[in-house]
Fold each of these.
Amino acid sequence: MSDRHTATPSARHTTMGMTVGAAFSVTLGALALLASLPAAAQAAPVAAPQPGAAAVSAVAADIQPHRAIYRMSLLSARNSSKVSDVRGRMMFEWADACDGWTTEQRFQLRFAYSEGDEMAMNTNYTTWEAKDGRRYRFNVRKLINGEVDDDVRGEANLGAGEGAGSAQFTKPEPQEMPLPAATMFPTAHTLAILDHALRGEHFFSRTVFDGADAEGATEVSTVIGQAGAPKESGKNALLRDIKAWPVRMAFFPTHSDSAQPEYEMSLRLLQNGIAESMQIDYGDFTVNAILDTIEALPKSGC
């Protein structure tokens, strides 16, 4: 594998499905959030109880289906990083499909490298997730310099309650993999973050399966800071008079014993499900995503 590929995020790393269903520097990450929490919460970071169906349904009622465009750029890079610049745009769409939620993310990114080369990455990631959080379909296609680099497709199902489940891939090759008990799909995970935030619970961890690649589920540890107002409330009515939380997530592959996350994401998440901004930290470089435009999509009315 070339140095350019090892220095380029995978489809999983660039999707917001994990955060706003996805989402989004270490200095502004978990330590900063911990410093803002009450002393009692810092002293006893006990895992919060998992939200029930009624709580998640109440949160879902406040979700605003929307289409957002984000400007993406390089926020910082270590001296050892091979990446010297990142530029591009991301379209994120979260729609209400009556019996489920659909998401679509389209990335157009250009990476510049310290040796002078450049790489264009285009990714299209679409999902459907049942509103009860038990069924999930996913489709990912990534192009590098116009050539197919990833093509992933499949579906997954979870058992009743906290039961285990399984994922069936049809691409890149047919395979089935087990999903551990208490696994969540991306939209259910986002709703759980909002439920914990509204209840004032600052810490929780869950196993999340997003289907962004064939590597399986990921352990996601989440820290939620104190509620505030959106920073860009003047841009659009969808950003006004609503709570916003700083959220920090660390992603750990379930097949790894490393104490260090594979990558981390910080974002400001609004009560209606809109991500106002995000930063994705890959260790040796960090990508910034700033909301450029946003429009409301209709609720299903079902």
Amino acid sequence: MTTLLPRARRGARRPVAPTVVALATAGSLLLAGCGSTTPTSADGARQPGTTGTSRADLQGTVTVLAAASLTESFDALKKDFEAAHPGVTVETSYGSSATLVQQVDNGAPASVIALAGATAAEPLDKSMVKDTKTFATNVLEIAVPPSNPADVASINDLAKPTVKVVLCADTVPCGKAAQATFTKARIVPNVVSKEVDVKATLAKVKLAEADAAVVYHSDVVAAKDSVKGVAIEPQLNTSLAYPVITLADDAASQAFVAYLLSAKGLATVQSFGFGAP
């Protein structure tokens, strides 16, 4: 006796072989995997399950030249960045912004340069610049010894012949800013010395070799109890914007600049007395 199979209903789908389903699924996953990307975080770290450069992948040396006023804040940034990226070494060098720019123009190796004041960057060879961003601001402040022996209470006191004043050299940003402030205040300070950068200027007060020095607010903050700050009236003060200039396009250098510009990096800089960009 012959058994007849039921005729398939019109429009019914024929079953698909399991092998075909598996191949189709695998192909879809492969295509999805190839097209999926997630941005890295601000400190250059790769997020879980993403493509790109991870903390462990970053390798190399980042050479950072920075204005002397950034010494303490960039030392902290260097420490934190290297801890987060064990394969990267950050080499820092500090000095007058004018000197640093001159060194780079003359061929000194540098991945990143951070300067006090946008005008300090004007002589820099623009063909080397990959990117420029402002990351901080700063204002001037008078630094005096903790006991303030000359009784300096305002910028006008710097014109007294009995007050020994130390300034930065006229060619460096802190010196130019001080001259602009004196012009607005219409005074001529009793200057006994002009130093190569802001740290050398501040050192004269720390060593009790001067009664007052015009430096940045951030330097007074960083000096802690070794000096006392005397504020300069806002209408007479001079503000500077601090640019960070990227000179190299390797992943480690890019990651360092990204970390500096991140919320955490900016908070570190501002904890040393700098203003927001």
Amino acid sequence: MKQWGVLFKKEWTESVRNFKWLWLPVVFILLGVMQPLTSYYFADIIENFGGLPEGAVLDIPPPSGAEVLAGTLGQFSQIGFLVLVLAFMGTVAGEKSHGTHLMVLVKPVSYFNYLTAKWVHILLISLSSFVVGFAGAVYYTALLIETVPVNNVLSGGAVYALWITFIMTLVLCLSALFRSTAIVAFGSLGTALLMSVLSMYTPDLMKWSPGMLSSHSQMLFYSGDTGDGFWVSLAMTIVLITGIMTLTIYMFNKKEVAGHTE
């Protein structure tokens, strides 16, 4: 446990030095605040900059609070995921490219401790950034539009946090198995996009998919209830996260041992 703590402290120190604990939460706060603000002032923006004919009256019904929060998750799924993947795609791949991981692994360091310390650190920053950004969206939605029931907000946010956990676990896996950060980025973002698209257009076939979690979280905002297949998707996501981490540790160990024996 002491070894794990030292490795985690190393990751924490590097992220503080690189200001990830500052700029990642700031990005998510801006994304979270932007959705309720643009929703509230949308009619004014169109009237002033939309090039409408003189005297034209624009009557756009205001969105509900649930719609705004659902739109916020859409911002997180697009720009937010891109930022997180770019921030962490070199977590292991970067060290492997420069050979700096050997300085750690040449010591009697457990591969399990090495990877899980990075995993927990990635999740801590990613989920903390999501929480502060989502909290900003909830606050301004309540201030400008309407209040969404607290239980709906908390349950929807928790479900979406599991979707983030799955994606960031995949990022770590690809980063540990490949030296190319481009492969890590395209693999992670491509998987997230593919799962989301398939879940959107073939929900009956993709009930098990982690990609359904985003839809379930949005439904929780609207009604406080999830759609069909929620528990299957939830259980499968947890199983996949556990399986990906287990496979990553095994494959990383195997590749590193093979590399040392060559």
Amino acid sequence: MIRRLTARLQSGTLWWGQCLLCRHDCERQPLICRQCRDELPQLERPCPQCAFPLAVEDAHCGQCQRQPPPWQRMQVLADFEPPYPRLIHDFKYHRRALNGRLLGQLLARRLEPPYPEVILPVPLHWWRQLRRGYNQATEIAHGLQQVLDIPVDTRTLRRLRATASQTHLNRRQRKRNLHGAFGARPMAYRHVALLDDVITTGTTMTELTRLLHRQGVSRVEVWAACRTLEH
């Protein structure tokens, strides 16, 4: 009993065997009951580079054919539709750390090989992470790691300066806001996955992908729980 309680405290939030969505008991299926898991929306036939849903399997959308993103592949769990907005909002702003573990586990079961050498969570500035209590991308990475045995590196990428919140900025403003915001320590990786909670315009991932390519990384994947990318 003490060991289980300690593990729950270390996760950031106590979990008493209830589904994080419907609050029904689910001791045999950690964090989410079978019914809620089966009803979760998922992307079908996504574009391999931007995860835009398509009518044909393994096809590239017209936008990516005309202007491919700098990364080599994108894999996400779902579009930003219920119940994911509530899960992610509570996770980021109400210290529901277990929501991140759940999102990571769900994402892990959707990912397709070949897998990268390492997962690189998108870094937060130290001041914002101190206020929030954790980096949401890192919490998702730990949940993912419970399913897929892939190392998580939280030291290589750094947020060099505190930037304004991206939430209400358009694409051009986001690009200007993030210019020079990230740095990276020397690395020997060749295939990595950048991980975040939600992909909106892709500006953050574009900035980080180009930084990684300059560091010698040849293949960058973008992973996230949800996407809101519009063409």
